[in-house]
Write a structure and sequence with these properties.
mainly alpha, elongated, RNA_pol_sigma_r3/r4-like, 405 residues
């Protein structure tokens, strides 16, 4: 045993081990609620014992064994029919095989990966996939998840219950899908992880969500090293995370990229992100996350705003528009073209677009650069009406004030 550090140390263990403990119990019992309840009991026991007795050498194994024993006791006491007894017998058998038992023979050694793919099964809606991933793998409480989705806690609780019920009713297997289904399912998992990251990236107060998304992406990249898009997503997250300290001013106002203090950026994080990206690109199977990471790398590695390789970024956005066609991608391509070839060229592309809330703000910036001040002010006002994030509203209001409007 080692000396306990503090409650913050236990919180770090919780973040690192919660998903493993819950995933193991779900595999052994097939009961999501029982798994979460017994995991909570195990962490409560750790909070009581570790400050007195010291932290075990293998805290994850201690927590998993404690949670498994709680589940065994619960099932044995309930004696609710043959199904419960079979679950208890399976748990008892793990006494001889170790805390985690014998994993399914699907070629993947980590139950968290199976849980990730189960949470992101296409039978569940995207909001349910994200909520279930946050709950079971990240260990966030229902109230925290409800705040992230801007819904009442009761609504989120019902959503989680329905998702678990659907998994049971549809008999969704707790496993990584077979190879012929992996590409389709992997995209869902990557999409959910990136959505989680953006949920934390868009608000400085949700740093825990952002860091958890990065941790899960690291796990996925380590467990599926042959999939270049897992590396692409991890690189994209790392590069965005490295620039996070310069994104907002002290009062919460959004700082444009060209005005950010690059001395605040995390250079070690940038180097790691670039290294992960180069390894992914080395497989020569470029996907949308790798292309987005390459764009982020162009920004992150430029010594100053004036040295940004905008022609290369415009080429990358053109490629991304083929891989991931959307108005948002086209809008970003227009911005890159404006920086590479002048605001008039970018404005010509912007005026062909519709259907994205960012369009008025982009038009306003390009009109401002063209010295068409009255039109720019009108576009900024329109963007201000559409903006919901406080940081965005402050940025737009500042730009409007600079125009003297």
């Amino acid at each position: 045993m080692t000396d306990p550090e503090a409650p913050s140390g236990l919180e770090a263990v919780f973040r690192a081990e919660w998903g493993t403990v819950v995933a193991t119990l779900i595999r052994l019992t097939g009961d999501w609620d029982l798994a979460e309840e017994c995991a909570q009991d195990a962490f409560a026991a750790a909070l009581e014992r570790w400050p007195r007795d010291g932290v075990p050498e293998r805290p994850g194994a201690w927590l998993t064994t404690t949670a498994r024993n709680r589940a065994f006791d619960r099932l044995r006491r309930e004696r609710a029919g043959a199904a419960k007894m079979r679950q208890a017998a399976q748990l008892a058998q793990t006494e001889q095989t170790g805390a985690s038992g014998s994993p399914p023979a699907d070629g993947f050694p980590d139950d968290r990966l199976r849980l990730m793919f189960t949470c992101c099964h296409p039978a569940l809606s995207l909001p349910a996939q994200v909520a279930l991933t946050l709950r079971t793998l990240a260990g966030l409480g229902t109230a925290e998840i409800a705040r992230a989705f801007l819904v009442p806690e009761a609504t989120m609780s019902q959503r989680l219950v329905r998702a678990k019920h659907k998994i049971r009713q549809a008999a969704i297997p707790f496993r990584v899908p077979p190879p012929h289904l992996l590409p389709q399912r992997l995209q869902a998992v990557l999409g959910v992880l990136y959505l989680l990251f953006n949920e934390g990236y868009s608000s400085p107060g949700r740093e825990a969500v952002r860091r958890e998304a990065i941790r899960l992406a690291r796990l996925l990249a380590a467990l599926l090293p042959g999939e270049p898009e897992t590396g692409g997503l991890l690189a994209l997250m790392l590069l965005h995370q490295a620039r996070q300290p310069g994104r907002t001013a002290a009062d919460g106002t959004l700082v444009p990229l060209e005005e950010q203090d690059r001395a605040l950026w995390d250079r070690a994080g940038i180097e790691e992100g670039v290294g992960v990206l180069e390894a992914a690109l080395g497989r020569r199977v470029a996907g949308p996350y790798q292309v987005q990471a390459a764009i982020a790398a162009c920004h992150a590695t430029a010594p100053d705003a004036g040295a940004t390789d905008w022609p290369q970024i415009a080429v990358l956005y053109a490629r991304l528009a083929v891989l991931l066609p959307s108005p948002v991608v086209e809008l970003n391509r227009a911005v890159a073209v404006a920086m590479a070839d002048g605001p008039a060229a970018g404005l010509e592309l912007v005026d062909r677009l519709a259907g994205t809330g960012a369009l008025p703000a982009t038009r306003a910036d390009l009109l401002r650069r063209l010295e068409r001040r009255a039109e720019a002010a009108g576009a900024y006002r329109q963007a201000l009406e559409l903006a919901t994030a406080e940081a965005d509203r402050r940025y737009l209001a500042r730009r409007l004030a600079e125009l003297g409007a």
